[in-house]
């Protein structure tokens, strides 16, 4: 799962509240702990450790055999959650450093043409960090290899606190487990950047991971979580509330139930606004001023999934999928709005199926809702099998962007597009109006 970045990580048991303290003196965007040579673990060592934990091979030629060997680890799985020791939130704290201010060569991997940071790279690092946090929570020192396959199930939400991420200032990620079910783990992460002598918040992210057996076929139990103190109890309750909210949203999906009365009125109003008053015909549609048909606000892409982008379980790395979806969604929002948009939030990224090595991955982005200078983009990814001609949905991504000017109104023409419009409006309301 871990992305091949020069991300520096410092694991956790020894970390205390000082890990979240602010820096001292600004030196060209270099934080004191990075600029002064404090020992930090390099990401390559973390990747090696993860390979050791699951028994994965560094070489592609040996990788499949290494995964086959994991089958024997199934007897190490707990029969029930009560068989596993309870963990605390501080047991899973991880701090990770991305030294953009200290390492000019690293900066090239994260740099955009406009001298900002590629947010797709940040998504990859967040996904890697969520996996590491989850393995830290479930770590059993008595076992040489973990029998668990921990994979990303959902990106619940990413809220941007600052639109600009500077390419020449060091970045710090901190995070830990905040909620645990029987087979799932919620990890919250915070990203900050060293500016003017202190760390300033950039974003908050919530990921949901699921535990599977060594073959990644069946659910597996994870250690329960014991909150300590009012602050941790609130975090845990927020995790419970998030789970309930996700169930409610799934139940109310427009793919399952009809729109609400208010939503039906919105769709009918959009329809009436597009009727040609001269012909007064249901079949004669007219595009209002400063509007764009939804059909004309699409952008598509194709990725051939090579072994280079595999995770430690021999599937395509979830962070890679997020980066590609984000970059396509951003390009669509940029084309639609006529200027470079900034990300406001990432919401409800659902990983429905894993993507196998060698797959043909089709990505389709759609501007599905606009309001003022905000653009809501939905990216749908599916795997296409050229032999069977079958398409299978793997992921759905939702991104909210903001432009420096008002953008055209997006207008659905068909009933299906109207449902996309309402779904986009729901996600916009969750991220911007909430």
From TrEMBL:
What are the GO MF terms of this UniProt record?
carboxylic ester hydrolase activity; fatty acyl-CoA hydrolase activity
Highest taxon in the source lineage: Eukaryota
GO-annotated biological processes: acyl-CoA metabolic process
| Transferase listed as a keyword | no
The record's annotation in CDD domains points to: BFIT_BACH
Which species is the source of this protein?
Answer: Eleginops maclovinus (Patagonian blennie)
Keywords per UniProt: Hydrolase, Mitochondrion, Repeat, Serine esterase, Transit peptide
Cell compartment(s), UniProt: Mitochondrion
* One GO CC term, this protein: mitochondrion
All residue ranges annotated as the HotDog ACOT-type domain in the record:
96-215, 295-407
In Swiss-Prot or TrEMBL terms, this protein is called: HotDog ACOT-type domain-containing protein
What InterPro entries does the database record attribute to this sequence? HOTDOG_ACOT, HotDog_dom_sf
Asked if the keyword Transit peptide belongs to this entry, the reply reads yes
Per the record, the similarity remark reads: Belongs to the acyl coenzyme A hydrolase family.
Q: Which Gene3D superfamilies match?
A: Hotdog Thioesterase (3.10.129.10)
Cross-referenced PROSITE patterns: HOTDOG_ACOT
């Amino acid at each position: 799962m871990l992305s091949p970045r020069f991300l520096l990580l410092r694991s956790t048991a020894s970390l205390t509240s000082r890990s979240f303290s602010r820096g001292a003196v600004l030196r060209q965007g270099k934080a004191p702990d990075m600029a002064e040579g404090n020992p930090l673990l390099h990401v390559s060592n973390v990747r090696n450790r993860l390979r050791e934990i699951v028994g994965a091979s560094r070489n592609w030629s040996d990788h499949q055999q290494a995964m086959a060997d994991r089958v024997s680890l199934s007897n190490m799985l707990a029969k029930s959650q009560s068989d596993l020791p309870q963990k605390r939130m501080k047991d899973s704290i991880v701090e990770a450093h991305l030294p953009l201010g200290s390492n000019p060569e690293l900066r090239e991997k994260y740099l955009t043409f406009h001298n900002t940071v590629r947010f797709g790279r940040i998504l990859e690092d967040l996904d890697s960090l969520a996996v590491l946090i989850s393995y830290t929570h479930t770590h059993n020192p008595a076992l040489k290899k973990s029998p668990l396959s921990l994979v990303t199930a959902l990106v619940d939400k990413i809220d941007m606190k600052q639109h600009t991420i500077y390419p020449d200032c060091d970045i710090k990620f901190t995070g830990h487990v905040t909620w645990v079910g029987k087979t799932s783990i919620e990890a919250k992460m915070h990203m900050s950047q060293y500016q003017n002598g202190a760390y300033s918040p950039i974003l908050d992210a919530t990921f949901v991971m699921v535990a599977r057996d060594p073959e990644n076929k069946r659910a597996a139990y994870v250690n329960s979580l014991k909150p300590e103190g009012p602050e941790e109890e609130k975090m845990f309750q927020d995790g419970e509330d998030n789970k309930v909210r996700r169930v409610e949203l799934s139940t109310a999906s427009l793919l399952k139930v009809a729109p609400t009365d208010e939503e039906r009125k919105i769709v009918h109003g959009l329809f009436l606004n597009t009727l040609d008053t001269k012909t007064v015909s249901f079949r004669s549609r007219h595009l209002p001023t400063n509007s764009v048909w939804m059909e004309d606000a699409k952008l598509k892409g194709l990725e051939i999934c090579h072994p280079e982008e595999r995770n430690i379980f021999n599937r395509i790395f979830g962070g890679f999928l997020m980066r590609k979806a984000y970059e396509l969604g951003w390009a669509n929002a940029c084309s639609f709005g006529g200027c470079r948009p900034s990300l406001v939030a990432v919401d409800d990224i659902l990983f429905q199926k894993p993507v196998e090595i060698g797959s043909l991955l089709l990505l389709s982005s759609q501007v599905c809702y606009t309001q003022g200078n905000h653009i809501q983009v939905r990216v749908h990814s599916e795997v296409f099998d050229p032999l069977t001609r079958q398409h299978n949905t793997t992921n759905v991504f939702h991104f909210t962007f903001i432009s420096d000017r008002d953008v055209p109104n997006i207008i659905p023409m068909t009933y299906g597009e109207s449902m996309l419009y309402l779904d986009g409006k729901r996600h916009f309301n969750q991220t911007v109006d909430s």
